[in-house]
Amino acid sequence: MGVIYIGDRYAGKTHLALELANPVHECVKVLSPGYNDLKSILCDPATGSTNPTSVMQPRQIDIQVRLPAGAGKVLVDWIDTPGEMWRLKWQQDNPLLWQQFLDVIKQSEGIMLVLSPYGEMIGANGNPDDFPTFQQWYKRFERWVEFFRAYCPNLRHLLICLNKADLFCDVKQESARLAYNTDSYMMNWHQRHNYILDHYFRPVKPQLEQLNRSINGLSVRCFITTIYDRSLLEIPWIYLGSFLSN
Amino acid sequence: MGNIRIIGPRSSGKTTYLAALAYLPKASGEKSYFKIEPVGEDAKKLAAEAENIICLSESLTPTGVRTKDIFSLPVYQFTIDVKLPLRQPERIDLVVRDYPGEIFDELEAGNIDEVHQAFMQDCFMSDVEGCLILLSKWEEGSDRFYKRVFNQFLELMDNEGRGSNLRIAIAMSKCERGELWPGRIEPEVDLFGLHLPDTKALLESRIPAKNLAFFAVSTFGVLRRDDPRPNRTDEMGYDGKVSVLRQPKIWQPYGMMAPLYWLNSGKRIKHNV
Ligand SMILES: Nc1nc2c(ncn2[C@@H]2O[C@H](COP(=O)(O)OP(=O)(O)OP(=O)(O)O)[C@@H](O)[C@H]2O)c(=O)[nH]1
Ligand SMILES: Nc1nc2c(ncn2[C@@H]2O[C@H](COP(=O)(O)OP(=O)(O)O)[C@@H](O)[C@H]2O)c(=O)[nH]1
Ligand SMILES: [Mg+2]
């Protein structure tokens, strides 16, 4: 029963994980590694920025989520998927690593996929040229969908996080709108997902529908995340914890 | 005492029903005739899922698509203290195994695989006292579907020697739905007789009357006694509408205990508890 944290390089996984480990938290707490450990593993002390991770460098994060029925724990395997990994050449040159990767993936019941936004959606705070174009992003998205369909028969919960929300939306407003709150007048999980789907995932809606249908028992949920908003950062983990904690 | 199986097609509400059983004692206070206590890991985990998932208007994960054998299925245990007016207090030790709905669907096709064969045999083991069967469809075509399924089911039941010594409770689930709600008081006539007449006739022809009973159940229930609006909201899922609980604070299932009590004792109680 594995839970996997996955995404392409520069999507922002390291920053998200590091920020999630920030001792100042709401419902989600990283039990291990500690904030400073994580920081020193991941950050280059000279520049203060995060090190690019090598392929398949296995990492685990141990997370505690405060839920209505009490605290739940989720143990997460973290996998970086740099672009070269998807090339047939790389897979042939690294058969063991590739197989190892597939073995982990095949078992997993929960996957949190972190995606970068595309250039066309970037607002005044960012530079669109630093991001893939919509065409590139769209292709990449289709490849993910194909990949999940081919290799993840046991997948029950797929969480897709469109990261760096600070660059494409009004974070304060969206954070207030989407906040996790157990009061029934707030958004429930379906409403939250449908809102994000309609506002941020519209171009790939058909792919999401197809994916959700093609794996028996799968539920695909969309989120927006950013390191600049604790609530948006925590929401996918709360969802994951609700279903896959013990 | 109280060894019971729950079966029914996919998405008929089996796990949600059990989750309500596990969680509601904590939520609904003392007023009921039944004091339910979840026992053991599985039942407690299910109670937590009810609170974390169902109460936040989400659906539970479908059971079983991953199940490889019966031993990997959770077994939910409860002790139920029953204190009915003018009757001696009773205790029911309930042990329930929740099957994935895909088995039931396979029965229709008539070719159940080995794993599912084992599930069915487990269902008819000699120490099983009864089977709660949740059905949720009543629309055009459902009667034919259920009839085919029960043909298979009854044959397996006979083959395992349980044809005349196993109680079968047939319940229409999700009966807070507007079309069904008025039929809840006489489910045998107004739900099964009306919507599933052939299925009903088949069951009656093969199961001794004392071992067969019909019920109406809604795990979500309605808002209040005097406000029969469903305590349910319909949200969009990928394949159309999904029903989820609306107001967890006033969650009061309808008819949840009556079939269990009957399965265990052979005695009927008021239809709405
Ligand atoms: N309207 C209504 N919907 C319900 C009720 N109980 C459950 N549901 C919904 O029915 C769907 C399926 O519920 P489950 O409890 O997972 O069904 P199941 O029979 O265990 O399904 P499998 O495990 O796949 O066999 C969920 O979306 C529930 O929210 C009810 O009383 N009324
Ligand atoms: N604006 C913004 N930038 C982010 C955010 N998260 C990460 N980044 C930037 O994205 C780049 C890649 O992040 P990193 O965490 O190393 O990605 P990884 O390869 O997936 O681990 C870095 O330059 C980060 O500063 C975010 O929420 N908002
Ligand atoms: Mg189930």
Which descriptors apply to this entry?
heterodimer; A: 246 residues; alpha/beta; seven-stranded mixed β-sheet; 9 helices; 7 strands; 40% helix; 21% strand; B: seven-stranded mixed β-sheet; two-stranded antiparallel sheet; 8 helices; 23% strand; binds guanosine-5'-triphosphate; binds magnesium ion
Shape of chain A: globular
Stretches of chain B where pLDDT is under 50 for at least 5 consecutive residues are: none
Distance between the termini of chain A: 11 Å
Q: Compute the number of strand runs of chain B.
A: 11
Which regions of chain A are unreliable across 5 or more consecutive residues at pLDDT < 50?
A: none
Structural class of chain A: alpha/beta
What Rg of chain A, in angstroms, do the CA atoms define? Answer: 17 Å
Topology (elements, then pairings):
The complex is a heterodimer of chains A (246) and B (273).
Chain A: E1 2-7, H1 13-20, E2 28-32, H2 35-42, E3 59-67, E4 70-80, H3 88-93, H4 95-107, E5 108-115, H5 134-151, E6 157-162, H6 171-178, H7 189-200, H8 205-214, E7 219-224, H9 230-244
Parallel strand pairs in A: 1-4, 1-5, 5-6, 6-7
Antiparallel strand pairs in A: 2-3, 3-4
Helix pairs in contact in A: 1-2, 5-8
Chain B: E1 3-7, H1 14-28, E2 34-39, H2 40-52, E3 75-82, E4 90-98, H3 101-109, H4 114-123, E5 130-135, H5 142-159, E6 167-172, H6 187-195, H7 197-206, E7 212-216, E8 222-224, E9 227-230, E10 232-237, E11 240-245, H8 257-265
Parallel strand pairs in B: 1-4, 1-5, 5-6, 6-7
Antiparallel strand pairs in B: 2-3, 3-4, 8-9, 10-11
The complex binds guanosine-5'-triphosphate, guanosine-5'-diphosphate and magnesium ion (MG).
The site of guanosine-5'-diphosphate has 16 residues of chain A, from helix 1.
